[in-house]
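Tutorial handout. Part one gives the primary structure; part two gives the three-dimensional structure as tokens.
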Amino acid sequence: MALPIRTLRSLVGGLAALLLATTAFSMLAAGDADGSDPLYSAFVGVSLGQIAAVAFGTTAVSAEFRGGALRLTPSAVPGRRRWFAAKATAIALPLPAVGLLTGPVTLLVGKSVLGASGPAWSEGLRGAVGCGLHLTLMALFAAGLTAVLRSGVATLSVLIPFLLVVSFVVGDLSAGVAGFLSDRVGQVALHSAWDGTLGPWSGLGVTALWSAAALLAGAWTLDRGDA
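Part two.
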């Protein structure tokens, strides 16, 4: 049976870290923003907050692989796909609440730091919703990848360097490709203006497709192998 999220202190701490990392980094970095994009200046902390979201999704799934716990799943749940669907649901349920709390708090912090140069409330509310949805989708993407790799360490070893380094390198080399990467396209909703073909909601839709693909791949992998 899947371990409940509330029984693992590290996961509860991960949700708190998501809120704290996003808002704290936004507060620190907003003061150094150049003001060319008021909305992103307020939400710049999402680039660090999404790492906390990835760590949450990874830890929630990798906990099931410790000590062969997943071998007990078929006796409690008829089919690992159903277990994984329940696990993904358990991950997804608290994240929108925390994410949609993180968005408005980050907006308020960003506007207080930026003052008159901050974003308008109308686009700020769009950014707040986009912030919450993006963090949720990135956590689900990490959960699916963890099921594929069957290791939290391996997943974090791939995703964290990608988010911190590779994505930016690809963005510098090819803006067209970067516009469809899971971590970049979802953040279109956090910009006042954008140059690509995707808008705020279509960008989040592409991130949702990345997450869905990772979850489907994870379910397929679990169904075919031994824990």
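Part three, for discussion. The mean pLDDT is 82. The first helix runs from residue 9 to 30.
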